[in-house]
Amino acid sequence: MKLKPRQAGLTLPELMVAILLGTIITSAVLAMYLSTSRNFRQDERYALMQENGRYALRVLSEDLTMTDFWGRMTATDAFTTALAATGNCGTGTPGAGTGIDLFNGDTALLYNNKHVGGTALFPATWPCNQITAVQRANTPILALKRVQGVQLAAGPVNNTVRLRTNGVAGDFIDDTTWPPAPAGFSDWLYMPRIYFIRNFFQTAGDGIPSLCRMELVGNPLSMGRVTNFPNGTADAVTCLAEGIEDFHVQFGIDTDADGIANQYLSSPTLAQIEGVVSARIYVLARANDPDPSHTDAKTFALGDVNLTQADLTGTNFYRRVFSTTVMMRNPVNLNLLNN
What we know:
Blueprint: H1 12-66, E1 79-80, E2 109-112, H2 129-132, E3 141-144, E4 162-165, E5 170-173, E6 186-189, E7 193-198, E8 210-217, E9 222-224, E10 238-242, E11 244-253, E12 263-265, H3 270-273, E13 276-286, E14 300-302, E15 305-307, E16 319-327, H4 329-338
Parallel strand pairs: 1-5
Antiparallel strand pairs: 2-3, 3-7, 4-5, 4-6, 7-8, 8-9, 8-10, 11-12, 11-13, 13-16, 14-15
């Protein structure tokens, strides 16, 4: 009977070679996984930053183009109202140190350019605690007034303010039981808004700057956010886009009434704002969390404002400036009609 030869085991050199090959393959797979994971996180950070930056730019653009739209009203100095906002976030006269003069249609566009320490439009230390207590340092405040582009249907709309006009005169109304507009009059939803940069997004201290907005809430009148619309009450502010570190606006002023901007100003006076025909908008977006492998020491230009790393929060964040130019026909057209 022929015996089968016994199976021999691995020799020590063979075992060492096998371990080495296994280690090389495992290291290669792990390196590929880590690289792919890092690239995915980078792409995710950048994509979210791009999305937030574009959205913030679109929101500001749409509101700026509608500024000073008053439905069928052309003579904005013909507004009559006894309405007064509660608190100090919408009352007072611009330049007097108290607010934005909420129901004055002559001051439909107000820009506090804190990049240069404030303007004459309203003070750099504007006393609205809902903003100043949480505002990111040295960033601007933009206040815009207008009515909605579509006329209101008949019937009350709770927690809102409307402008009732016959094209010659107009009244602001804050009353859910107000009767339908009589013949020859129309009602328009009043939509004043204040934009600013808050130093957190959802939770105080989260370190994520964001573009926020305050809106007018009726009954009682105040600036804030409507919860459970249309039956809610004023409640804090609405933050629209996270990771927005700064924004800046330059206004195109038409000095010779030909409809073309002759100069762009970051801190126009109220008189110059009546000649605004366009606006250049700049938004600086930042990733929500840092990337330890990324270092950026660039200076970011927002029109005539240059932001260095000393103005920003860390060098390990992805950042990008978004910009656009929009036409603003309402201010100059109203000014021409009223002259």
